[in-house]
Write a structure and sequence with these properties.
By secondary structure, the protein is mainly α. It is 79% helix and 0% strand. α5 packs antiparallel against α6, α6 packs antiparallel against α15 and α18 packs antiparallel against α19.
Length: 512
């Protein structure tokens, strides 16, 4: 049995430090979205490269969360919290100084490593400090709300920085904030570990990273290389083999990083699925929406960030109220309502998206997405974390965070790929029969930003027609991709209604 910590007011200071850090890490999940059009212009990135800049962070984050949660349980949660912050700071410095797309992708991956060390340790610390079920639900509610708020605040934070500084400022700002968080954590966050924690499952970690990385590569690169190309099919098949091998290894391993037996508990497994499907729509929608606001509507990064702010405002309002909602109507209905609202919001934005759209036509959808996220994230998180034993809290919190990152990464990959495929098909048809040099054609088909740059350089009626055709192709892809995201979130709501228990049982999650 773990030693019980005294219930002192300092646990609330620990919550403040942990939530502050999680806010920074989750802001970095989406702060880059508003800078994507800038990276198209400054680093000449195409849609595929934009997806990798976003997903290299999420891929490493998700792939290493499980092993880092296990290590934190074994060697000390506070240690890994601090080490993760340091790695995150170093990755931010490298990203800010990058001069090529590939260098930026590499340092984003390093930042993902830092986040993977920090986030599961942070939630595990809260799970250990707040032993009272009601207090723990409230603390996790704030943690989940902070995570969702960070995701929504990223675009406006990026817009503010880009309006005054160069694009690297969105990363360099992490350095002083990270140092303050480290200093506060040294004095205010207690250390804890599970003295009975098992050995770390290195083979499982390698299989999970390989499987996820190959899967994302196949999805992201398919529009460029062809969905039916031998390479894409081989890599996709390899990802399935690696992921199947991971599951089989975890079932038979004596010290797994992911205890498959947890998934027999519907409160754990269905809430995890709900998070994956909800984040699929939220992250994928933001990837498309920030480009729509800047490229199609012509807003600056700051103006685009401000117009994403309603999502953050609604998340901030609803997330702290979600535990009350769960007590009144049950966990099942609260999570299902959250997914349904996300689905409805995505569908509204999808139906309103065309070249004649204005911001007010998509605003109702953005508000619905924020409302749904505020209900879903804290409620599902509490369901996942409270379903595992206290000694496995690091692994439980890591699994919860994997759901966040996996949903977001696959959402960006799938929505980005649908968007890219539809865009390339439509722009190719529009340009059929025209005499355009191959290099210029690649720029036009690579991204809407590239096409608009070419259109601007051409000028006149020809430039105007090219810009209109490119915007129309992009919005056609956006309409389809957001429609798919809405369908995915709605399927999540159906799964939750069918299988998630409505009420939490008496708290036994902290027994060893």
């Amino acid at each position: 049995m773990l030693k019980k910590l005294p219930r002192s007011p300092s646990r609330w200071l620990s919550l403040v430090v942990v939530c502050f850090t999680v806010l920074v890490v989750n802001i970095d999940n989406t702060i880059l979205n508003v800078a994507l059009p800038t990276l198209v212009r400054e680093l000449h990135a195409n849609i595929s490269e934009l997806q990798w800049i976003v997903d290299s962070y999420a891929m490493v984050f998700a792939g290493l969360l499980l092993v880092s949660g296990s290590l934190a349980d074994r060697y000390g949660r506070k240690k890994f919290f601090l080490i993760g912050l340091l790695v995150f700071i170093l990755g931010s410095l490298g990203a800010a100084s990058s001069t090529t797309v590939h260098t930026l992708i590499a340092f984003r991956a390093l930042m993902g490593l830092g986040s993977a060390l920090t986030v599961p340790a942070s939630l595990s610390i809260l799970n250990d400090v707040f032993r009272n079920p009601k207090e723990r639900a409230k603390a996790i509610g704030f943690w989940g709300g902070t995570a969702g708020l960070g995701i929504a605040l990223g675009p406006i934070a990026g817009g503010l920085l880009l309006s005054h500084f160069w694009w690297g400022s969105i990363f360099i700002v992490n350095v002083p904030i990270g140092l303050v968080a480290m200093l506060a954590a040294v004095f205010l966050v207690p250390d804890s570990k599970n003295p009975k924690a098992e050995r770390t499952d290195i083979i499982g970690a390698l299989l999970s990273v390989a499987g996820l990385g190959l899967l994302l590569w196949a999805i992201i690169e398919a529009p460029l290389k062809g969905w039916s190309s031998d390479l894409v099919r081989e890599v996709g098949l390899s990802s399935l083999v690696a992921l199947t091998g991971f599951v089989l290894w975890e079932i038979h391993s004596r010290h797994p990083i992911l205890k498959i037996k947890f998934f027999a508990n519907a409160r754990f497994s269905i809430a995890t699925i709900a998070e994956v499907l909800g984040l699929f729509g939220l992250a994928g929608g933001l990837f498309m929406q920030t480009q729509f606001l800047q490229f199609d509507l012509g807003y600056s990064p700051l103006q685009a960030g401000i117009r994403i702010l309603p999502i953050a405002a609604v998340v901030c309002l609803i997330a702290p109220l979600s535990p009350i909602c769960a007590r009144l109507i049950g966990v099942k209905l609260t999570v299902a309502a959250g997914l349904s609202a996300i689905s409805g919001g995505l569908l509204q934005v999808s139906l309103s998206s065309d070249v004649t759209a204005v911001y007010t036509t998509v605003l109702p959808g953005l508000l619905l997405i924020g409302f749904g996220s505020g209900l879903l994230l804290p409620t599902a998180t509490n369901s996942v974390i409270s379903s595992v034993p206290q000694g496995d809290s690091g692994v439980g919190s890591a699994t919860n965070s994997v759901a966040f990152q996996l949903g977001g990464a696959i959402g960006v990959a799938v929505i980005g790929s649908i968007l890219s495929t539809r865009y390339q098909n439509h722009i190719s048809l529009a340009l059929k029969g025209t005499q355009i040099p191959i290099s210029v054609l690649h720029t036009i088909s690579g991204s809407l930003g590239g096409a608009l740059t070419v259109a601007s350089s051409i000028g006149g009626m020809s430039g105007h027609l090219l810009a209109y055709a490119a915007k129309e192709a992009f919005m056609s892809g956006g309409k389809l991709s957001l429609g798919v995201a809405a369908a995915v979130a709605f399927c999540g709501a159906i799964i939750v209604l069918a299988f998630l228990p409505s009420r939490q049982p008496a708290d036994h999650s902290h027994s060893e």
